[in-house]
Write a structure and sequence with these properties.
363 residues; 62% helix
Length: 363
């Protein structure tokens, strides 16, 4: 079993049949590759699997299908086939053999999961590279040497890290950061802590521990290395002020959503109507709603959610709950008739479904 199969099996195992909406291979693939739609985020909330979102953004459908088929042949998962034939809508469950495999692999590959990593999916590469570069600055500063080979070659990212260093790093803050970091790493599984520290150790002036060197030394895959590093970095920000500041500055400078989403957000914040934004951007209103809804999930104080009538959200939620209890298909047309609002925006359904899950964990 490789690491991506290990992740897939762990995800299937976390979503227990008694507590979840259906999990099929199509949904599973979209979770781990990070399909960024309102439907997908609602499913993340219902299944509570934020920590698995976009862990393998480059995973192709063919490779995924091969991995699923291999796990089925090995007896690690089973399909609840519809109409006697298998398709990507069939429900997937983990078998008892699969659970035993997981227990064995968890001893070999300790896993760190952090729900909030989904919030920063768009900044993953930027933050990971910036963090290593910050620590190169720290190493060079401590050793009183000049950096001759910066870890980051991109000029814009170099400028971001330099500005961050000037703004936040001082002798007192440096000591606070290191003390906090060591304290946090002490309670982690040894392999995880060792990998994290090894990625930050090198000659201060060059500072270039490669992924190949780390995977060879620790005998782990590159996908394990990257996933553990990222999940741990996000979890460390909860109690480490310097790391928390790095995330906050990255959001300010680079944006927490893709550029096309941000353009819709900027126009909305300038008080443009949804129809006007759609016209200016030559997009459908439903697409603009999707942009604003997703942004509101990531940024707690964004006004889009607050501009919805709480009573209508409550009525929408009640209708959804009734459909779920009676196992009746939820039809938007029926909902609009039920509450007497023919022009009800679909965003009410999205916010109601999110509220049913308790909301995203970082709000």
């Amino acid at each position: 079993m490789n690491y991506s199969e290990y992740i897939l099996l762990s995800l299937i195992d976390q979503v227990t049949p008694a507590e979840r909406p259906p999990l099929n291979s199509s949904l599973l693939y979209h979770i781990v590759t990070g399909k960024n739609t309102s439907y997908q985020w609602v499913k993340l909330a219902e299944l509570h699997v934020y920590s698995f979102f976009a862990v393998f953004p480059s995973l192709t459908q063919d490779v995924f299908n091969q991995q699923i088929s291999r796990m089925e042949r090995q007896g690690l998962i089973s399909y609840n086939k519809q109409n006697g034939q298998k398709n990507n809508r069939d429900l997937i469950d983990i078998t008892e053999r699969g659970k035993r495999f997981l227990a064995s692999y968890r001893r070999q590959w300790p896993m760190i999961r952090c729900d909030e990593q989904a919030r920063y999916y768009n900044l993953k590469s930027i933050i990971m590279k910036s963090f290593v570069q910050v620590n190169q600055y720290i190493s060079a500063y401590s050793a009183d040497v000049k950096i001759t080979e910066p870890y980051i070659m991109d000029e814009a990212l170099q400028a971001f890290v330099r500005d961050f260093w000037i703004k936040y790093l001082s002798a007192d803050r440096l000591q606070e950061y290191l003390t906090s970091l060591y304290r946090q790493l002490e309670v982690l599984p040894p392999l995880v802590a060792d990998i994290f520290m090894a990625s930050l150790v090198g000659r201060p002036e060059t500072f270039n521990p490669t992924s190949e060197q780390l995977t060879t030394y620790f005998k782990v895959s590159s996908s394990y290395l990257e996933d553990i590093y990222w999940q741990l970095l996000v979890s460390l920000k909860q109690e480490n002020q310097l790391i928390s500041n790095l995330f906050a500055e990255a959001v300010k400078v680079f944006g927490i959503v893709p550029v096309t989403y941000q353009k819709s957000v900027d126009l909305y914040q300038r008080s443009y109507s949804l129809d006007k934004i759609a016209t200016l951007r030559q997009l459908k209103v439903s697409t603009i709603v999707e942009h604003l809804f997703l942004y509101s999930l990531l940024i707690p104080d964004f006004s889009f959610r607050n501009n919805h009538d709480p009573l209508l959200i409550k009525q929408t939620r009640q209708y959804i709950e009734q459909c779920q209890k009676s196992k009746k298909r939820l039809l938007f047309s029926d909902l609009k008739k039920r509450i007497g609002r023919d022009n009800l925006p679909y965003s009410y359904v999205l916010f109601a479904r999110i509220s049913l899950t308790g909301g995203v964990p970082w709000h």
